[in-house]
Structure formats: structure tokens, C-alpha cells
Amino acid sequence: MLEFLLSLLVLTGASFAFIGSLGLIRLKDLYTRLHGPTKATTLGVGSLLIASAIYFSTYSEQISLHEFLITIFLFITAPVSAHLLAKAALHLGLPSLAEIPEAEEAGQTEMTGTAQTGATEAFEKNERIGSENASPGEKARPEKSESITKTPGTPDQTRP
Amino acid sequence: MTRLLPHPVLTPVLAFIWLLLNNSIAPGQITLGLIFGWAIPVLTIHFWPDKVSIRRPAVLIRYLMVLFYDIIKANFTVARLILGNTDQLHPVFIKLPLDLTTDLAIGLLANSITLTPGTLWARLSDDHSYLLIHALNETDPDRLIATIKQRYEKPLKEIFESC
Amino acid sequence: MLAISIQIAFALVAAAVAMSFWRLLRGPDAPNRILALDTLYINTIAILVLLGIHLGSALFFEAALLIALMGFIGTVALCKYLLRGDIIE
User: Fold this and answer.
1) Rounded to an integer, what distance in angstroms lies between the CA atom of residue B108 and that of residue A76?
2) Interacting residues of A58 by C-beta distance below 8 A, sequence separation 6+
3) Dihedral angle over CA of A18, A20, A25, A29, nearest 10
4) C68 with A74: CB under 8 angstroms?
5) Which of A63, B132, C7, C83 is deepest in the core (most CB within 10 A)?
6) DSSP state, A109?
């Protein structure tokens, strides 16, 4: 009976892990692909860990519950990594089967978004102009270098 | 009192994690776990911006059970969708207006949404007024919004923001 | 019975690892590869847990826990890099 339960848990877990990874191949765009691994694999690994906890609790002297630590950890972290991936994909403007709301594409004008695109544009411009008026530090990070040159500059003007 | 025990919820949680990690309930380990559970919040007091207060523990337990049931259902739904004809899927982005205001409650709602049937939290708007959700296969966005609001947002509001 | 089902489970998880490797090599862009890595480490945890049951040894628990921690941190760091162009600000 116990062996049957363990086999069932092990097989369910492995099948869900398999289906989750199958989603990586079968689904068409990144946003739908995110659904497979984050859900299927958490329950898959979850039931494998429960099987492991039952197995070690019955076949060794002491009760073994530390497998639940990994289960809890995975259930907390899986949504976070899925969200970060979705956010990164939206930020990079990856193609999607679903229509991305316009506000979100404009949402790329978030502080860091403009800083980054601004940096690359300035970088390309500097590349074209050449190195006549830009030091290497200013090429890569215009915003940062501006603030660096400003900070020592302003106290000098206000001091006298 | 608040300086000696800044986070009453965190202390037993840390002690419990320590016991799980050592896989033992020997008296010595319980004492050590309680010492860690007390010392870590006191030493890291500046890293914890908000005080967590659970107003309705019974609702929280019921919420966790509902969530667990939904996670298992979600897995079968998503598995069926992946094994089925993937050309027939109808993925959409949905804006979910938020009633919650606390960061912790919004975070928990967002994590619950990502763990449940075919939905994924993609973005929180800058003014915390709505969540952008990606649904794997949904033809009726309004029904989904109503379900999420009724099933997850209402209990969370009761637990963390009831006055 | 348990021995046979563990063998089947090994085959299923190995296929899962192969499929995430395919996505890792295929791409086509950075977020897809990070997603493949994320799936890969979760599948690795599954393999370690199965090995633990198969060999009857509880030693694999620590390895699985460490992979879970490191895998999550790796995913977060790579996503942060895509979002900000920098990991530690």
C-alpha cells in the first residue's frame, strides 16, 4: 500500500516535470512558455519531495521532514523568478502572441529604461563622431559621467 | 517590548526553519532555534521596513487552503493545455485594478496569481493602481478579474488591511 | 514496484533535462535562455531527490537545497542584469 502511494507520487512528480519542460518546446512565445516551468515543475518537484519525506520517515529510524524546506522554498521563489523574467521580457520588448497594452510599451520609459537606451544612443553617436570630444568614460555612461563632473564643479562655483 | 522582540511573527518562523534544517526536535535544537529566531530580527531590525500584523489568522489559514487547492487544479489545467493543441491557445494581457494598498498584501496577491491557473504576474504599475497579468488561455477577461478579486483579494484585504 | 517506477521517473526527468537543454541552445534570445536555465536547475533537484530515494541515502538533501538556493539567485541576478544592465547598484 505504502509502496503504491510512493510510486504514484514519484510518477506524478516526474510526469509534471516532464510536461513542464515539454511546454518549453511546444509553446510559441516566451510569455506562454513561462507558464509551463513555473507551475508544472513546482508541483512536480513538490510531490517528489513529499515522496522522499515519506520514504525516509518509514525506512529510517527518525522522522524526516526537511524535504519540506525545499518545497516551501520553491513555492516562494518560483513566482518571483517568473515575474522577473516576464518583466525583463516586457522591458526588452520581446514579441508576444497576445497584444501588449500600449501603456506597458510606454512603460519602458521608466527611469532606468531611458537611461539605458540613452546610453546606447549616445554610445553610437560617439562612435560615429569619433574620439575627438569624448573620453572613454563618457562614451559608455553619459548620465553617470555628467553627474560625476557636476558634483566637483558646483561647490567650486558656490564657494567664493 | 518592541525593541526586544521586533517581529513576533518572524521568531517562530525562523525557529521552525532551523528545526526543519536540522531535521530534529531535540530540546537543544529547539533552544538554539529560538535563540536564532530572537537574535536575527533584533540584529537585522533596520532591514525590515514594515511591521507585519496578521489580524485574522483563521482567514489566513483558509486562504492558504484555497490557494493550495487552486495550485493543484492549476497544474492539471496547464498540463492539459500544454499537451493539447497549442495553436488553439488564446493568450491575453489583462489589467487588474488593485484595491490593496500595503506592499506585503500586493506581493502576496501577485505571488498567488502566478501560482494559480494559467495566470502570470507580469508588471506592477508605478503608482500601484493595477497589476498587469498574462493569461495562458482566457476568452473572458472580466470573469477572470472578478474571480481573482473575489477569491484572493478579498481575504487578503481582510487579513492585512481590515480596520 | 517502487524500483520500476523510479526507473520510469528517471527516464521522464532525463527527457525533461534534454528538452530544457534544447531550449538553452536554441534560444532565440536571452530571456528564453534564462528560462531554460531555470527549468534546468529545477529538473536537477528532481534528479537528486530521485537518486536519494533510489540509493536510500539522505545525503543528497543538502545538495538539492544548495542547488535550489543558487539556482534562484542565479536567475534573479541574470534577470536583474537584463533589466538594469547592472547587478549590484
Assistant:
1) 10
2) A2
3) 180
4) yes
5) B132
6) G
Q: Average of pLDDT values for A85-92?
A: 84
Give the minimum alpha-carbon distance from A159 to chain C in angstroms, rounded to a whole number.
31
CA dihedral defined by C1, C7, C11, C17, rounded to 10 degrees? 110
Q: A28 and B86 in contact by Cβ < 8 A?
A: yes
Instruction: Kindly list the residues from chain B whose CB atom is less than 8 angstroms away from the CB atom of residue A101.
Output: 93, 95, 132
Of A6, A66, A70, the CB nearest to C68: A70
Q: What is the CA radius of gyration of chain B?
A: 19
**Average pLDDT estimate for C38-51:** 90
- CB pair distance less than 8 Å for A98 and B91: yes
Cα B153 from Cα B148, distance rounded (Å): 7
A41 DSSP 8-state letter: I
- Is A144's pLDDT higher than 50? no
Cβ proximity of B90 and A31 under 8 Å: no
The 10s digit of each residue's pLDDT in A115-132 is: 344 444 444 444 444 334
pLDDT(A133) > 80: no
3-state secondary structure of B69: helix
Residues in chain A within 8 Å Cβ distance of C79: 81, 84-85, 87-88
DSSP state of B45: G
Residue with cell 488593485: B98
Count the residues in chain A: 160
Please name each of the domains of chain C with its CATH number.
2-84 (1.10.287)
The residue extents of the domains of chain B are: 10-47, 69-161
Query: Which has the closest alpha carbon to A7: A59, A47, A63, A60?
Result: A47
Q: What's the complex ipTM?
A: 0.86
* B contact chains, 3+ CB pairs < 8 A: A
C-alpha–C-alpha distance, residues A88 and A80, integer Å: 12
The residue extents of the domains of chain A are 2-101, 110-158
- CB within 8 Å: A22 and C53: no
Look at residues C1, C2, C17 and name the one whose alpha carbon lies nearest to residue C56.
Answer: C2
Residue contact B122–A68, C-beta within 8 A: no
Phi-psi group of A101: left, alpha or beta (phi > 0 → left; psi -120 to 50 → alpha; rest → beta): beta
